[in-house]
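Hi everyone,

Forwarding the result from last night's run.
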Amino acid sequence: MQITERVVDTITILELRGKLTIDEGAQLLKDKSESLVLQRRTSVIVNLAAVPYIDSGGLGQLVACYTTLAKAGGCLKLLNVGTRNHD
């Protein structure tokens, strides 16, 4: 799992690439969301276009990131959720 970050105005866009699983990407996503909150960058879009698979651990981490950002007064939006991941 790789995470690329870019900022457009006040919104941080995270481009995820690779599988979002408990053993591969969940910890990276957790660390990134906590870092963004510390920087007071709490409006986040997660682009999942290059994520072929999300397991239950990865899904749980997306929910945890949403909660972390919401508690800090921000929001999390998902972009390009594939059909397989959506189901």
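The two ends are 21 Å apart (CA to CA).

Cheers,
N.
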